[in-house]
Amino acid sequence: QVQLLESGGGLVQPGGSLTLSCATSGFTFSWGAMSWYRQAPGKARELVATINEGGTGETFADSVKGRFTISRDNAKKKVYLQMNSLNPEDTAVYFCHAAIFPDDWGQGTQVTVSS
Prior knowledge:
By secondary structure, this protein is mainly β. It contains no helices and 10 strands. The protein has a 6-stranded mixed sheet, with no helix packed on it. Strands 1-3-8-7 form a 4-stranded antiparallel sheet, with no helix packed on it.
């Protein structure tokens, strides 16, 4: 059974930073790419960042380039999202996602950027 458990969200002021973590189980983590998505109220879920299975290649949405970093630890079966220079438009529920199990999602972690 695939499990994705996101954590690390919270309330942060504009310009602040947060690091999200996603602990996984139930599949061979190192076999596929991992991504972070986010969904703001009233909006569709959008892809934020992806990292390949070896951790050697990353892609980012234009809206977060230069501010967010994605990384993974295959030994710990975890993926991370370091978010810097946060702004109110980054407010959303953030989800991690395994490419090899496209229909499986966790509960997400809420990120709120507000003064």
